[in-house]
Amino acid sequence: MSKYPNLTDADSIIMEILWRDGAVTSSAIRKEVKNVLNWSRQTVNTYLNRLIEKGLVAVEEVNKRVYKYYAIVSREEYAAD
Fold it and tell me: Which residues of 58-77 are buried (b: 16+ CB within 10 A; e: fewer)?
């Protein structure tokens, strides 16, 4: 059985951004996918929260309005599973 949960297509898009860029804000993710996927702020936040629940992403508070998200599982770890 796999140690990590399967990623949906949407999960994969966000994880690729986090793996590539390290810690990023939800607004940076939204700006990157906006032209292709037209996701709202809430949609991005929903996917980020799901990835946190899956144990693949963590979040740190920069200030009361800004949070940075980062992968806690590397691409290599995920692929090896």
Answer: eeeeeeeeebbbebebeeee
pTM: 0.90
Residue 67: band (very low, low, confident or very high) from pLDDT cuts 50, 70, 90: very high
Helix (H, G, I), strand (E, B) or coil at 68: strand
User: Could you give phi then psi for residue 38, rounded to 5 degrees?
Assistant: 55, 40
Strand order in the sheet with 66-71: 24-25, 66-71, 57-63
- Cβ atoms 30, 21 nearer than 8 A: no
